[in-house]
Amino acid sequence: MTRGGRRTHLVLTIVCGGLAALAFAFAVMQKFGGGS
Amino acid sequence: MSATYRAVQWTGHKRLYDACVATAIVLFIVAYIAAVQLSTPPLEAPDAAVTFIRATGFCAYALLHVILLIGPACRLWRGALPLLYNRRHLGVMTFFVGLLHALAVLGYYHGFGEMNPLVSLLVNTARAEGLPFEYFGIGALLVMFLLAATSHDFWNANLGPVWWKRLHMLVYVAYFALVAHVGFGYLQGETGFTATLATGLGVVLVVGFHLIAGVREALREGSEGVARDGWLDAGPLGDIPDGRGTVICPKRGERIAVFNHGGKVVALSNVCAHQGGPLGEGKIIDGCVTCPWHGHQFRPEDGKSPPPFTDRVPTYEVRVEGDRVYVRTTAEKGGER
Lengths: 36, 337
Description:
The complex is a heterodimer.
Chain A: H1 3-31
Chain B: H1 12-39, H2 48-76, H3 81-84, H4 87-110, H5 117-127, H6 133-149, H7 153-159, H8 161-168, H9 171-189, H10 194-220, E1 231-236, E2 245-248, E3 256-261, E4 264-269, E5 283-285, E6 288-290, E7 297-298, E8 315-321, E9 324-331
Antiparallel strand pairs in B: 1-9, 2-3, 3-4, 4-8, 5-6, 6-7, 8-9
Helix pairs in contact in B: 1-2, 1-4, 2-4, 2-9, 2-10, 4-5, 4-6, 6-9, 7-8, 9-10
């Protein structure tokens, strides 16, 4: 992969991985009654 | 590798790979349905259609995890490289399993009313209470369709490897959408902890492996420091086994692959012209530097693919002083891409 490709890959990993982790956390809070 | 386009460049290896994956998918779905039916009392057993919907959904979700784990696994452990070879086939099959899941949902939950099933899905999802998890599933399926439809080398060649790779990084958007789809859908109806723990473990594995591999790669960037008089120290020749390469990371520009070709040292761009694979992690086969990702080959002396192929990677001047190898950081004239 090119240098720019590796950078984009890392940024996307952090953004989408973070969003996935947040979505999972909210889903757990909603399921177990801690969410709004 | 082929000089002409065909729908699928079938080889014995690819046929075997696809047959194994298709069999594993069918066995997984059958085993899931059997396990649910056998482990639940007859009166409490869910509808067979619901079990099928869950089985296909679970299968597609698990397959996406496998696909996403292959990349960082290869960067952390070379032994995983064979898994990368037909990853696109796995991606296309994942899309079809997801499509099967979506069609079963449309037929079972939206197929018996007067409204068009697709309209019913969109309208009733908007009216439902809670987060409309179906929209996340639709989004993920659309992205997976786009990726499956453009997975062929035709698109890779016409979009160029850089834009093709950028397009296919949308798989991470699909992953986020699928986690939300499962989290706000399936998990909300599950009473036990097993499914929640398994989903959480999946997220930790995918995100964790990508971060470890990504940060490790980022730390290597420019690790060889600034070149002196345009030459970069690539280390001792004795550290490069015959037929193998090493990768150096200049402060500027792309990484360079340095190969020992029967005692002669050659240097090429580390970025494969096909899909940007790391050439320096490959080996010399039949006198050509061979990419570890998909087997594309380049002649060490001029960086050109052997005829009838026309791909080319930049080459770099090399000099050996004593036991140390030095590489000029600007591509050779005529050897640029």
